[in-house]
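Q: I'm building a small set of examples for a reading group on sequence design. Run inverse folding on the following structure and report the sequence directly after it, with nothing in between.
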């Protein structure tokens, strides 16, 4: 019997989005890890999967203090489920299409944005109005192409541009202002779980 109840729901799909972008599957076929500087991120992940494991702390190779929150657990059943939908160890550069039920795609995508995305504004020199951008980052262009395609299938949104970020070997899927607003309204529609600091940026565009 596994620790995680494998049953699709809004919270479950959101947790899968977090794990896809910010998590890690060990090569041992059993253990999973979520690490983040945001304690709320780890708490959300833990609550969505109804885990009882304790949240730990750790540092990185370049920092002295323990600035990262980490949740690690073992669950063969959940691990095998994740592999069955398209996840795998050392996934960052090889990630592609995932088998996500269409009715939970926006919850999954919100998890991806909270995990390895950004919601931000900047001042364009030719406009007095702040320009909104939603971005999702990945080392796998195939994964971003799949997300872009799924967004087009599930909505009337046809924009989005995948850009190579050069030396850092990461690509980003970027949406311009009008498309970003449409996207935010879809991923935050009736949402119960999200990273507060990103939601506060999005909130002003949701009405």
């Amino acid at each position: 019997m596994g620790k995680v109840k494998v049953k699709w729901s809004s919270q479950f799909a959101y947790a899968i989005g977090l794990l896809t972008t910010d998590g890690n599957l060990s090569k041992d076929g059993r253990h999973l890890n979520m690490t983040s500087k945001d304690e709320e991120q780890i708490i959300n992940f833990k609550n969505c999967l109804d885990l009882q494991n304790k949240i730990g702390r750790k540092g990185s190779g370049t920092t002295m203090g323990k600035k990262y929150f980490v949740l690690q657990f073992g669950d063969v059943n959940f691990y095998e489920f994740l592999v069955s939908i398209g996840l795998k160890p050392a996934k960052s550069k090889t990630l592609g299409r995932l088998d996500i039920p269409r009715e939970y795609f926006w919850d999954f995508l919100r998890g991806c944005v909270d995990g390895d995305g950004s919601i931000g504004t900047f001042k364009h020199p030719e406009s007095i109005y702040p320009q909104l951008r939603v971005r999702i980052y990945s080392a796998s262009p195939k994964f971003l192409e799949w997300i872009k395609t799924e967004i087009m299938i599930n909505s009337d949104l046809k924009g989005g541009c995948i850009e190579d970020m050069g030396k850092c070997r990461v690509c980003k899927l970027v949406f311009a202002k009008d498309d970003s607003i449409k996207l935010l309204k879809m991923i935050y529609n009736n949402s119960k779980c999200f990273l507060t600091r990103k939601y506060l940026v999005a909130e002003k565009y949701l009405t």
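The helical segments are 10-22, 39-48, 76-85, 105-116, 141-154, 177-187, 196-202.
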